[in-house]
Amino acid sequence: MIRRNVFALALLASAGAIATASAATIVAPSASSNTPGNAQGPAPLRYFGVGGSRVQQVYDSSTFAGVSGPVTISAISFRPFTTPSAFAGDTVSISESLIRLSTTQGSGEGANQLQTTFASNVGGNEQTVYSGSLTLTTSASGAAPYPFDYTINLQSPFTYDPAQGNLLLDVQIPATATVSGAGFGFATFDTANTENDGLFSVVEINNGDAISGQVSTAGAITQFTYAAVPEPSTLTLMVAGMALIGQLRRFPLN
């Protein structure tokens, strides 16, 4: 009986610690969570063809105002502006891509304006979160806004602290890569093109080797999947619970 009670307490401690780090989602800009955007476009990718592209999207830290402390981002999702058709297919495939995240001081407004030169906007903690071929597919139907099902599951999750600055998404398709799919193009991304909504971009969708682009108020509406970074006390509780379970398995109580 003693062993059973101790084992149950250990499980509860571990489960409680893990629950605090469960995944959640947040949409940028927040005003577009349940409202369709007012524009559409291929960025942060590009239309079918070769030549590559590079697009940076900056999300103001206020997007994460409801989050306490740093978060670990594990997926990035976009939604289509319209439903797929014979003209605009439901799938886009990129033979090679490079996606990076960093914390930047750059913004679309105020003293730290975004620069046209891509390198000037990149933060010191830049991390490659996805590299290689990429295929995105949507099953959108019915009325807009559609689900965020153009999803990129990151190969390397990124830890972002809103207190340190804004979030920079940097998507590069090399000039040698091919963007393709069924139809004449794909159902492009639902986009917000509004001043001072906390979403800005630097865009060059025709040249993957470009070092600069055009600053824009437009950006693909984005959903981030994230989990709060556990506080030290939570980590301690989880480790202690798992250690106790291990000890109980090795040395059963009578």
From TrEMBL:
<dbReference type="InterPro" id="IPR013424">
    <property type="entry name" value="Ice-binding_C"/>
</dbReference>
<feature type="signal peptide">
    <location>
        <begin position="1"/>
        <end position="23"/>
    </location>
</feature>
<dbReference type="Pfam" id="PF07589">
    <property type="entry name" value="PEP-CTERM"/>
</dbReference>
<keyword id="KW-0732">Signal</keyword>
<protein>
    <recommendedName>
        <fullName>Ice-binding protein C-terminal domain-containing protein</fullName>
    </recommendedName>
</protein>
<feature type="domain" description="Ice-binding protein C-terminal">
    <location>
        <begin position="228"/>
        <end position="250"/>
    </location>
</feature>
